[in-house]
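Morning. Coffee machine broken again, so started the prediction first thing and wrote up yesterday's gels while waiting. Chain of 187 residues, entered below exactly as on the submission form.
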Amino acid sequence: MLEIDLVLFQALNADAATLPAVVTVARWVSQQLPTAMGGLLLGSLVLGNAAQRRALALALASMALAWLGVQLLRLAVPAPRPAQLGIGVQWIEHAARAGFPSMHVAGAAALAASLALRPVRGLTWLAAAVTAAMVWSRVCLGVHFPSDVLAGLLTGGLAAAAIHALAARAPRWQAALLHKSPQGNAH
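Came back before lunch.
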């Protein structure tokens, strides 16, 4: 672990001197906000127009790819969480499994990056704010090091970029599948 990681963790991790309201907000961000955002996304999928539904489908695919990326990275780099090393205060219950990268942050970052690439009115900036809040809350609550949340940001951003790149190629694939064969028949 880099010294900067430890210094930043100690600066952001809530301790006994932290106002209880700060810990309450951090808990809400980490535990309830993902569910609230899920409900908002589901409602937007149902009530949105075709362009919004397409943007949200790409965002959900980005989040799914981010989840897969986190799983693979955790297998490759099974880095412990701060509490497993006896560092800081952990304010929420959490299993003793690898913490690199942060799954919460990767999902939030995938959503925000995807909506930045294909904006949805009212959701794009909200997703960015949720991501920033998630980065803070995961370190504040002592379940991740700053490097874990940074890796989550990168994983989510790369997942969104990959999904959007694939989606941009989809019309070309469809056209290639529908082109006429030399005998004049469509494939």
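The chain has one domain: 20-178. Going to sketch it on the whiteboard this afternoon.
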